[in-house]
Amino acid sequence: MTEQAPSSGFDFNQPTIISLLYLGSFLTGVSGLVGIVLAHVWQGENKEEWAASHFTYLIRTFWIGLVASIISIVLILVAIGFLLIPLVTIWFGVRSVLSLVKAQKREPMPDPDTLLF
């Protein structure tokens, strides 16, 4: 399979679209749900290796972020949730931006199974 050269403009490839939807969820809340549905649908299609690593990374980002958010909300009862919610938000945003930047270069995520960045 031949590798495509990165375009000089903004490339709306599938991982980029999902990353943008995740980032848009900070404003709308709903676009993250659209992003996770698209990630699961597009992951099942035959894709290039770099894109497959992004789908794994982005799917894990959503589900881990959702679980961490729920735990943080429950922990508000003991006040530690107030500290965790901003950390989860920053974690989610940084992972989305990192995927966006790598997707623009059509580079794979170095370790899509990581919990960190």
Question: How far do the termini sit from each other?
Answer: 29 Å
Tally of individual helices: 4
Rounded to an integer in angstroms, the radius of gyration calculated over CA atoms is 15 Å
Return the structural class. Answer: mainly alpha
- Mean pLDDT across all amino acids: 92
Indicate the percent of residues in helices: 55-70%
User: What would the principal axes of the Cα set say about the shape?
Assistant: elongated
Strand percentage = under 5%
| Poorly predicted parts | none
H-E string? HHHH
Tally of separate domains: 1
Major beta-sheet overview: none
Strand runs, count: 0
Task: Provide the descriptors you would attach to this structure in a database record.
single chain, mainly alpha, 0% strand, elongated
